[in-house]
User: Fold these one by one.
Assistant:
Number 1:
Amino acid sequence: MTDIVPAVEGLGFGGDYNPEQWPRRIWDEDVELMREAGVNLATVNVFSWASVNPAPGKWEFGQLDEIMDLLAESGVQVDLATPTAAPPPWFSVAHPETLPVDEYGRRKNYGSRGEYCPSSPVYQEAAVEMASKLAERYASHPALAMWHVGNEFFQRCFCDQTAAAFRTWLTERHGDLDGLNHAWGTAFWSQTYTDWEQVLPSRVATSTPNPGQILDFQRFCSDALLGLFRAEAAAIEAHSEAPITTNLMVTGNFTMLDYHRWAEHMNGDRRLIAVDHYVLPADEIEAEAQVAFAADRSRGLARGGPWLLMEQAANSSAWRQGFFAKKPGEQLRHSLSYVARGSEGALYFQWRASKAGAERWHSAMLPHGGTETKTWREVKTLGGWFRRLAEIKGSRVRSRAAILLDHESVWASANPGEMSAFIDPYPEIRRWHAALWRRGVVCDVAHPTDDLAGRSVVFAPSLYMLEDDANLRRYVEQGGTLVVGPNSGIVDRNDHVHDGLPGALRDLLGVRIEEFHPLRDGERAALDDGTEGAVWTEAAHAEGAEVVAGYIDYPSTGAIFRRELGDGAVWYLTTRPTDLDPFLDRLDLAPEVPGLPAGVEAVRRDHEDGRTYLFAINHTHKAVTIPSEGTDLLTGTPWTPRTHLHSNSAAVIRER
Ligand code: GAL
């Protein structure tokens, strides 16, 4: 197994460190407190373009040299960032064409961050120059552990430079204008293109826009940002052998980038999947299940291998949904949950709370209140735990189930012109994952083209777009159980409706859909097994499958189907069950540790040599016993099946 953070011993622990906000004397206090907390990894330089390159052609590395040297002397390794996520005002003034334009054609101003057009050649050149200069200077610096390209790529631009780059991308995808016209179905509404110059990004239009154009623009935007990542990574690689990463955003329902495609370029010997995750107070699922999904998704991107939680909040996230504080013990439990699910450490945004600027009220490892705070005490506790957990590094998570996520399908299914405003697939995938989390089932988040062998159950709650059934069929025939949710398999990669619904899945499911019956907001459909469905129903008939449950109002059609195929079986649900448990009860789904109440999380990590570690995290208000034997690494004391795991606490048991 590749050691993902070669220069860091054990698990990574630390956060974004932005000392340019502070007078020099504070830096000494910083490193002293980092030592006290057990920090061994700091992300430096993320937003420091203005310091290292304060004017055109002017490079000043003195301050960064000093920070790097200080951290090296203090035993803190550096995840060194290219500060390309936030060009400074001088850059925007000198190159106004690099500022992004929105879908109405309005150019945005500088004064925040992320103010660039991904397709701007001037910006691209500047970003690569920045990466190259930093790599050349710091490649052999003793503090350097790895590289961090930009920050949470998310920019989108609709300007003329973007239009030109989009046309080039479309030529590669569709060949010529005939190919484009076919893919976008332009014969409808007289949209036929006769010259590439007519083709535009999906800017604001008069009525429902062309879905093919929107989908391709989403793909293009993701690829354009991936291109930036790769260009900077190549510039770094020309000078340095250290691993390279960037922080992918896996918070809430963020699905702007096709991380499955990104993962092709973020795995390997000198790459690392790293993610940022912030628990959202107003999310539809509980905090712990949010953490579990983000972590399982990250592990999926890392193909089951190691990954790193690059950012989380030590306490409140003062953004989007308002200020909320974490309860005592909460961030400790969450941090352990990420590690249980494969992260090789936990880092925060940020080390010390900012006195000024847009995020002065975002929490930090070292809060405004200083060291006499719950947050600081918990940070120190976690640092201590991580030291004791060093031996788990490199172990892998054991899981028996998987849930399928395809970004392109998610985008297409939620784009304008779809049949239901409530069908949004990503929250639905997360809802199923959360139901499995509550049952203690450890579940990978996989892509429909991944090798699915070895999982006893695979869930595809919402897989609208699917080219063919080959991979899923193989999984079922070889003994797997596949569960497919409604509105799946019905369009191809161009969002064209397959013949014979449910299209690509019709043969596999043994079901024919007569027509779709989407439900109104809040409407419910009663099933004859006593359950009910929401959002969507279908008039469907068994053609090879057996009907397991039907609709009370449509007795001639089926609601839930099951079919045995090869050594396995496939289920099809034509509606979204309001309560997933009655359906999950029908499956043979083993939790990692049987008999635990919902909210007591149990996940195993294994080493190839047979050592196993059981992470037991009690998110509930009641003590429980965990049927395992060995040593709790957090306390160094023996664990027996009679040992109590107190409420709001955790154990990491090296099992006998
Ligand atoms: C992240 C971002 C950080 C910081 C953090 C807290 O999304 O990468 O720079 O802004 O959120 O809001």
Number 2:
Amino acid sequence: MCIRDRPVAIDFGIGKLTKLPEIIEQFDYKKGLLISTPSMVKNGTANKLLELCDGKLVGIFSDIQPNPTLKNTDDCASVLRNHDYDFAVAIGGGSILDCAKVACFMATTTDATSLYFYKEKLVDHPGIPLIAIPTTSGTASEITSASVLTDTEKGVKAPMNYKYFYPKYALVDPELTLSCPPTVTAASGIDVLAHSLEAFYGKKHQPYTDMAAEKAAKLVFENLLTVYKEPHNVEARVNMSLASVTAGLAFNLTQTAAAHACSYPLTQDFGITHGEACAFTLAAFWRLNSESDDEYVRNRLQQFSKNCGFKDANALADFIDYMKQEMGLCMVLEDIGVTSVELLDELVSNSFAPNMQNNPVDITPSLLKEFYQSLVPASVTE
Ligand code: ZN
């Protein structure tokens, strides 16, 4: 079991954003870069944060794509490096936080990100300290050591995972998620469920990650459709933020498994957003793993399903399909544009990222092909 070298301080609660100047003061930081989204610059939020921090946050970088690229981290790093920033604040969804975590390290080198992305060099020292502020309930990037980047030239999307990527501080203010549009709420919320379920059935699970996974999954089952239908329901938003951080604490130690492995080509080659791509196989992998030859695995999944309030593992999987249907997420291969055997074969061969090995049932290419073909449109009701 790994021990975290740099546990992230987490401050959670409605209105916590106003604590930002105090945190900057506490660490005695002098000159910070705000890393954010173009929309937050446009709607004035970024400038308001600069004002709030009274001269300590002095620049803004927002040239970051959804699914951040190696170029995004290189560009952000060069701004940090060339203007001698001694800290950064990242506010946004998983893409912004993932980009910022890597850029803060890259700023302390003169290298290009690709050297580290392809492991020609290792991340061996801390980067510029980062205060991470999530605006979605999804990736939990604010408390993990992982960043997922894309090399657009080579068409490779892959996670980088180094202890030096932990942010210094996670400021989690659920109020920031109130303006999250329903499509983003749906995709990021179901990503939280994927983190919970995969942390639970992943081979690297531990008793305490199991507890966190169960707590997070229950919160998603009870609150995701509510925040999707009632975006301003504060209590449900708080619960989804709590679920996101709790699932993050679990999968940061266990890593993810099969549904996330399959999500990478779905995003990279078929343009499906991260959460929706994870959701695509989530219910089916729950069913498949609950029918494992290993009695221990079968019993664990059945018991977890009951603890979450379902009759059995199939009922839990049916409810995932029901939520996906209610939120208009992709259900079958045709929905994502896999319309030929050639495309399916390509999808299968690109689905074997290392986290596939963390699945409790061994997945072979032929099994995975059958599995993808067996996905059917949801016809379930609550
Ligand atoms: Zn995820």
Number 3:
Amino acid sequence: MNEHLTVVDHPLVQHKLTMMRETDTPTAVFRQLLREISHLLAYEVTRSLPVTMKAIETPLCEMDAPVIEGRKLALVSILRAGNGLLDGLLELIPQARVGFVGLYRDEETLQPVQYYFKVPTQLDERLTIVVDPMLATGNSSVAAIDLVKEAGATDIRFLCLLAAPEGVARMKEAHPDVPIVTASLDSHLNEKGYIVPGLGDAGDRMYGTK
Ligand code: URA
């Protein structure tokens, strides 16, 4: 994967994203749509996942056929909204190892504050996909990727649902080696750091906390 930013403009993704953006979409539907979109985005973000060959028997003959080595993949969710994408990815790749980065955004400085960090061992041998639905200022994503790099990861991708140009620029500056996959590059951030047009607070919309 060479491009720094890939926008998945497939009609199925765009249709589901439109439903998620709508204010009146209920929590349960929002969560279900996020799960469905995460399957479609997974297709793109795992495009170059290495496969190994396995000897199998079809009803007609023996053959060497490709299989994914799930143990070579680490999914790292930025809590709490990252878990919505994580759940869908795990449905597709249940063998993947999973890590969590707990960061909350200080509402005044918009800077990330770390409260939890637990990731799989041997990250240097794994493709590491860091997930968070919203790439807004980029502060949390940059901090999370700093942490997974410190833990040994070298082959990293970032998966989000929506990205703001400000966040993409910040990521490109801090982590030019980390490709980003998203469903949309939105217009801008507002004065509170929300993505416009966006979908509001992803965590609140997923869990009905507002
Ligand atoms: N986090 C969110 O949940 N929404 C935004 O628009 C920006 C950051």
Number 4:
Amino acid sequence: MLDKLSSSLKDTLKKITRLVFIDERAINELVKELQRALLQADVNVQLVFNLTKKIKERALNEKPLKSITQREFIINIVYEELTNFLGKEKSEIIIERKKPFKIMMVGLYGSGKTTTIGKLSKYYSKRNYKVATLGLDVHRPAAPEQLEQLSEQVKVKCFTEKKEKNPLKVYKKFESEYKNYDILIIDTAGRDALSSDLVKEIELLNKEINPDEKILVISADIGQAAQAQAEQFHKSCNISSVIVTKMDGTAKAGGALSACAVTGAKIKFIGIGEKVDALETFNPPGFVSRLLGMGDIEALLEKAKEAISEEQAKDLGNKFLKGEFNLIDLYEQMEAMSKMGPISKVLEMVPGFSQIKLPKDALQVQEGKLKKWRFILDSLTKKELEDPELIDSSRIERIAKGAGVPTSEVRDLLKQYKQAKKLMKMMKGSPDKMMKKFKFPGMK
Ligand code: GDP
Ligand code: MG
């Protein structure tokens, strides 16, 4: 469900956990990536803009509580704002004890009304309600049969009248029997669009049946169009809940989820498959946690804590000075690197070094190269990372294969590492002298 959005959100937050410095630049980058991920999930541009603006403002202006790190703080802001965005808290359909509590389903053709009735019947039967279904879709051929089959499958009573083409007459026909049930779930006809015919029919049924709950069923694959649809249906029959179906089958579900939430009609369930148990209650905090992989994130934060903190970044500067800098450090640096080379940032923290004017792109690595190097570093064993001297020709070959790059790339990376290390050793001497002797990688 929303796998793509989820994985890009996770990636974005992963980056945050690995950053050495969370500064305005990092936050801008985070916001940009959030925007990209949400837009890809088809969330409305204006909504995305409002959301990310808020995240940015909070990230820049609020101060983290003492007990949490800045990373945890930022991730928490993203979590809170996304949750707010989807409707804050879980809201449930309150089933009143009256016989029957009438639920009417409305929605366009193929949105999943009938299927969802099967799912709801099962859901409420399991919770000890006596459920019956009523088929008022008199237009679609075989609609009654579909509802009958589903009802049989989940073992609830089904009322249909195949020959009758007037839905109100069908409703009236069984009226005396409804009192034997706790919940009556009513199927209605859809159209391709919200036509005046459909509006009239819904208005009439709404008036005569007077349902306790009117659920709009919307398919997630319509993306942002969900908002207009929800608003139109709301106008015609005052819908009280929304169920978004087909969450399993589309990358655009962000559109329907966010669009519905802003109409004020609460999403109560989501459909995540064709089978009768593919229904979930919709709980924004839980949903967002899963989307962001909060479990993963906690683990990541743990790792980040172990790996590097801002204070430790200063230690890294010292490591540089002592020449103890290894490939893990380089890896951390590369992870931390966005456009500007953070090695130069680390250097800024080294006393005496900030005055030296580095050529602007001296320690910068081109973006494409960085990606390849990351693959390479991922192919290294822990031992090799700690002690790059171990890496001989046969290891280079293995590493290149693992990373899917030519061996020359591996050699390049090692060269970069050696040069960085050499630079650090020289810094033990006078920075001035060093500047004369040392040729920075990438310098002509
Ligand atoms: P109706 O015209 O609104 O009654 O829509 P149906 O209930 O007949 O559903 C239309 C199609 O959507 C059927 O093929 C269903 O199996 C399918 N469908 C409904 N809900 C879901 C869902 O949550 N996930 C998936 N993948 N398919 C669904
Ligand atoms: Mg149907």
